[in-house]
Specification:
The protein has 12 helices and 4 strands. With about 260 residues, the chain is an alpha/beta fold. It folds into 2 domains: about 150 residues, Toll/interleukin-1 receptor homology (TIR) domain (Rossmann fold); about 100 residues, Alpha Horseshoe (Serine Threonine Protein Phosphatase 5, Tetratricopeptide repeat). Strands 2-1-3-4 form a 4-stranded parallel β-sheet, sandwiched between helices. Helix 7 runs antiparallel to helix 8, helix 10 packs antiparallel against helix 11 and helix 11 packs antiparallel against helix 12.
Amino acid sequence: MNKGLKIFITYAHKNSEAKDKLITHLAVMKQNGLIDVWHDNEILPGDKWRDAIFNNLADSDILLYLTCPYSLASENCNKELTAALNPNIRVIPIILEHCDWQNHQLSEFQALPEKGKPIYDISEWNPESKGWMSVVAGIRKVVNEMQSQAKPSPSVTPEEIETLAFLAFHRGNFMMMLDQIDEALKVYSRVIELSPNNAEAYNNRGCAFQMKGEYNRATADYSKAIEISPDCPIFYNNRGAAYSAKGEYDRAIEEHNKAIEINPN
């Protein structure tokens, strides 16, 4: 059985009720093992909320953006959308009410419900549950499609997959040497798809994001590399450099100190 896809929900807190309705309507898909759902209410006391959000976003397959004037105006929602713009994450706007989303970056993506008709428009969806069921049907279609694409060919052995990942990783390194950063990002993402526990691929993709000035996405990838391989000082050093670039100097010092602790030389 395929592992369930991880869904990340981006929403304005004024739409917490809509977020809860969405989670309720997705319950059957979750019970069937098709998806796992994450949102900021999952953050535990004592967690660093920004790290928790971007680490979980980096590890997600689908971002659902609950779209309304409040979310379009939200700096946090738009930062999460920017972080999701990579080949590994499918972005799906869910239109709650009439707003200017078609002149927003979200207009690049196919929206739900059907034809982008807002859920709260009673002239389109009466009762409202019909709108939510259109959303669920659309998400189910995307999940089935993504899981079908993720199935390796029966003729490909695990050893062959690892070889493909190895070759792709070195191609990514070559793209970095040529300063073809966008191409390197695509290649490292493919490596991660083939070999999800490849800490070096996450680290190198983090380096590529950092070279583009996308520091939140860089720190998320470095964090994933550290989660996989917590004894590698280079990963902490790189995360420290990203924090420093963001102006978070105390956190940068913590990371560099950790790298020194692991390898004093």
